[in-house]
Amino acid sequence: MSNFLPVNKLKNFLIILSLFIGGFSAFSQQAIDFGLGANISTGLQDEWGIHLKSQYHLNEKWNLYGEYNLFFRRDVIAQNTETYHVLGLGANYQIFQVSTANIYAGLGYVANNFLIDERNPDTTELFISTGNINHAANLKLMGIMPLGEHLHLFAEYNIRSFGKRYDTFTFGFIYRLSE
After folding, report:
1. pTM of the model
2. Nearest to residue 52, comparing CAs of 74, 40, 66, 36?
3. Which of 140, 165, 161 is nearest to 67 (CA)?
């Protein structure tokens, strides 16, 4: 799965989209964030990942995001580590603020290149597979708390329509280019 050509094309698209959003952000004086974090699968114990994100804030309430996740799955029986990629795009809306922390809810699109076992009881039928890529919806609950002028801490819970096995908890840091 590591030689998966369409995922490389999707990664290039996400990088170009991030650059486009960044250029638009500089022009319109809106904020853009870049983040790095870690993922933990809430449906499978031996799976974790690296999370990269970019967010463009349209105004104080709305932001658009693009994210890339590289997951590592340790198969203890076979003694090997599998990897798969997840790309996501969507929008978040700030639902409330607690002290200095902002709480967001969002909806988005997510695609991965993991071979989904449809017989698994934790897998739903609410996704579409095209070749080796699976497409689904993503419901995101996210909190962002400022640690300084540009540095923020984030935590998010992603509920994916692939099924419970693909839900994740993510945490990490965001660097905001402008306020």
Report:
1. 0.76
2. 36
3. 140
Chain-centre distance for alpha carbon 161: 14
Answer whether 41's CB lies under 8 Å from 48's CB: yes
Q: How many CA atoms lie within 13 A of 6 on its CB side?
A: 12
Structure tokens at 39: 């993922």
**How many whole angstroms separate alpha carbon 22 and alpha carbon 96?**
26
Q: Which of 63, 110, 103, 59 is nearest to 89 (CA)?
A: 110
CA torsion through residues 12, 14, 15, 19, sign? positive
Cα–Cα distance for residue pair 156/139, rounded to 1 Å: 10
Q: Report pLDDT digits (tens) over 167-178.
A: 889 999 999 987
* Amino acid identity, position 167: D
